[in-house]
Write a structure and sequence with these properties.
The complex is a heterodimer of chains A (357) and B (299).
Chain A (H helix, E strand, L loop, with lengths): L2 E10 L2 E11 L4 E5 L6 H9 L6 E6 L2 E2 L10 E4 L11 H11 L4 H14 L15 H13 L5 E5 L7 H18 L2 E6 L2 H7 L2 E6 L2 E6 L1 H6 L4 H6 L6 E10 L2 E6 L2 E5 L1 H7 L5 E5 L4 E4 L3 E10 L4 E7 L2 E7 L10 E6 L5 E3 L11
Parallel strand pairs in A: 3-8, 3-9, 6-7, 7-8
Antiparallel strand pairs in A: 1-2, 1-4, 4-5, 9-10, 11-12, 11-14, 12-13, 14-20, 15-19, 16-17, 16-19, 17-18
Helix pairs in contact in A: 2-3, 2-4, 3-4
Chain B lengths: L1 H44 L3 E3 L2 E3 L19 H34 L5 H11 L4 H16 L4 H5 L4 H25 L3 H10 L3 H12 L1 H17 L2 H6 L8 H8 L8 H30 L8
Antiparallel strand pairs in B: 1-2
Helix pairs in contact in B: 1-12, 2-6, 2-9, 2-11, 3-6, 6-9, 7-8, 9-12, 11-12
Classes of the chains: A alpha+beta (357), B mainly alpha (299).
Chain lengths: 357, 299
């Protein structure tokens, strides 16, 4: 199912839950709404589901406006963060409830319910009540219930946030695999940028009710359009420092007190158009080296494979992913090297990227 | 070594006494007056007379078993009063139950104009005792009695009128209680059901109501007992034996003109207690769930 959101807004009095959201979701696409809590991603999802009535704008399913269509007639399935299973019904009745409401013949209902349950690996738990299931099993029941009526659109509202870390990881790949197999258009809401990066075909980044960007994970990561996206996508988050970029001789320099780095001319040229800029660089693009900018180790946090080292460079703190073998300690004097081919620049006032329009 | 184990054994014994036996002893002491009261009623019911808890016959000897006190069961009026009480009790169970669950749901889920004011008023209403409203209610019932058709069943001096007033007086508590139960059920569950294809009414009926069954049951018991044993409203708004309820009948039994036979009064009291006890036996689990922390699995 193709989904199109056109200038979609939800307003309660003067408070906007979502504001002017424009989105174009292709058939079979897996789209993630990503943003911090309160950014309007769940509000937008509930409008797509038909639970909230949009204050303004249109929702199209396959070209048809569905604003006034009741949730039950939208041919959607939804998985909730709290699972929202019916506690007084067993697994079979939970999964088959949508079919029962469709008045499906009994034999067909049983067959389809069993098939979905088997697909979700809970076929042997049919007689259990939700209270007797583990969190992961409950999530599978919820997923089964959403899938059983073979919807054209699947909606997920932070479905994994109640699971423990290990289970979250395996459910993540399972949902992704299932979605690919069934080819059902999906919208998935999360505040977890790792989930978004790993699962999405395209990510819609939201902030304060507004759509910040709608792009592939790679594009968001390599070419963030706003400072917010740069800081929100990627872990550990991007480093920011206010700099002035200017041309000297044949090269562009980004400078501030205690810092002077040469940046590639294509990026430098665009950045130098603005008097001041905010330079952004990811921790993995900064290295501890023999030559470079001088700094002092402020904190060392072991992450296992790497150490996340915070280096104090003339008053600004820069996160660096460093080899544990370096054996850095707090107070060590170090030299830091920036891989400036990946550097980003943002306008300090508008926080828009100076590189990518 | 030996003394050591004896010491620990003694300590464990003391702990068990403090932890398990002592609470029972304290409980029994506190409820002893009530137990003695019921014991007296039970003994008095089957005796000619009693001295303390000891049944005596006419000559003052221990014994004197009799069924004479239960002779009121031959009076057709008692059955009439029982039916009236029962009608009012069931009327309350249904009336308060239906209105409270519908209104509680609306108050819990919907945002409509005047919702806050209504909630505030429901709380304020609970502050007014029925006694304060007797005269006003009397006026209302007399007015209703003047309306054709309706007046015959719900006006002054009718069983319907008494039930009507009692339902109204009980509604604030019922609505508030039900709203609390609905508040405990997550919105997501309703949303899920709506997306699964249920209509609003079906969501309420198939998903929400089963989850607050314990609350409905508790409310039903509470109302049954209220309706069954209320004296004030029934005594105030009825005249004559045709529409009197059991508690009113009981009062007339120990009336002003005749000398009361306390043993007969006790028997009638016992008779009135029986349905309540039966009700309790079947529903105590539901009642416990309301006192012990609301609906399980309703979240």
């Amino acid at each position: 199912m193709k989904v199109e959101l056109e200038n979609l807004s939800k307003r309660w009095g003067n408070v906007y839950g979502a504001r002017g959201v424009d989105l174009d979701i292709k058939d079979g696409e897996f789209v993630v709404f990503l943003g911090p809590s309160g950014c309007g991603k769940t509000t937008t999802l509930l409008m797509v589901a038909g639970i909230y009535k949009p204050s303004e704008g249109l929702i199209h399913f396959d070209g048809q406006v569905v604003n006034t269509v009741a949730p039950k007639d939208r041919n959607i399935g939804m998985v909730f963060q709290s699972y929202a299973l019916y506690p007084h019904m067993d697994v079979f009745h939970n999964i088959s409830y949508p079919l029962k409401l469709q008045k499906a013949p009994k034999a067909e209902m049983e067959e389809r319910t069993q098939r979905v349950a088997d697909m979700m690996g809970i076929g042997h738990l049919m007689e259990r009540k939700p209270a007797m299931l583990s969190g992961g099993q409950q999530q599978r029941v919820a997923l089964g219930r959403a899938l059983v009526k073979e919807p054209g659109l699947l909606l997920f509202d932070e479905p994994l946030s109640n699971l423990d870390a290990r289970l979250r990881l395996s459910m993540r790949s399972e949902i992704k695999r299932l979605q690919l197999e069934l080819g059902i258009t999906s919208i998935y809401v999360t505040h977890d940028q790792v989930e978004a990066m790993t699962m999405a075909d395209r990510i819609a980044v939201m902030k304060d009710g507004q759509l910040q960007a709608f792009a592939t994970p790679e594009e968001l990561y390599d070419r963030p359009r706003t400072m917010f996206i740069g800081g929100f996508v990627g872990n550990p988050p991007m480093n920011f420092a206010e700099v002035a970029v200017s041309r000297r001789n044949d090269s562009f320099h980004a400078r501030r007190e205690g810092l002077d780095v040469v940046v590639p001319s294509d990026r430098g040229e665009k950045a130098s158009a603005s008097d001041k800029g905010i330079m952004g660089i990811r921790p993995e693009d900064v290295t501890i080296a023999d030559e470079g900018v001088s700094g002092e180790v402020f904190v060392v946090e072991p992450l296992g494979r790497d150490h996340l080292v915070t280096v104090d460079i003339a008053g600004i703190y820069v996160h660096v992913l460093a080899d544990p073998a370096l054996g850095l300690h707090i107070g060590d004097k170090v030299k830091v090297n920036f891989n400036t081919s990946k550097v980003q620049f943002f306008n300090p006032e508008t926080e828009q990227s100076l590189l990518w329009a | 070594m030996t003394t050591g184990t004896i010491e620990t054994g003694r300590k464990a014994g003391l702990q068990r006494f403090l932890g398990q036996t002592l609470p029972y002893i304290l409980l029994i002491i506190t409820i002893l007056p009530i137990i003695i009261g019921y014991a007296w009623i039970l003994i008095a019911t089957f005796s000619v007379r009693t001295e303390g808890l000891v049944p005596k016959d006419a000559n003052g000897n221990i014994g004197g078993f009799t069924l004479q006190n239960w002779s009121f069961l031959n009076d057709p009026m008692i059955w009439r009063a029982t039916l009236n009480s029962f009608t009012i009790a069931i009327g309350m169970v249904i009336g308060v139950g239906v209105v409270s669950t519908l209104m509680g749901y609306a108050l819990s889920r919907m945002n409509f104009a005047g919702r806050k004011g209504l909630l505030g008023m429901i709380i304020v209403l609970q502050a007014f005792r029925a006694e304060m409203l007797l005269i006003a209610i009397f006026q209302v019932l007399v007015f209703i009695a003047g309306i054709p058709l309706i007046g015959k069943s719900f006006g002054f001096n009718t069983v319907g009128g008494v039930a009507f007033v009692m339902i109204a007086l009980q509604l604030p508590l019922g609505v508030w209680l039900m709203k609390g139960f609905f508040d405990n059920i997550s919105w997501d569950m309703e949303r899920a059901a709506l997306i699964d294809g249920a209509s609003r009414f079906r969501v309420w009926w198939e998903i929400i109501i089963p989850l607050i069954k314990p609350g409905i049951a508790a409310l039903a018991i509470f109302n049954f007992i209220q309706g069954w044993s209320n004296y004030l409203i029934a005594a105030t708004f009825t005249i004559g034996t045709k529409v009197s309820t059991l508690p009113v009948f009981l009062n007339q039994f120990s009336g002003d003109t005749s000398l009361a036979s306390w043993n007969s009064v006790a028997a009638l009291g016992m008779f009135q207690l029986i349905p309540v006890m039966i009700f309790f036996i079947f529903t105590q689990e539901a009642l416990l769930s309301i006192y012990g922390g609301g609906a399980k699995g309703g979240v």
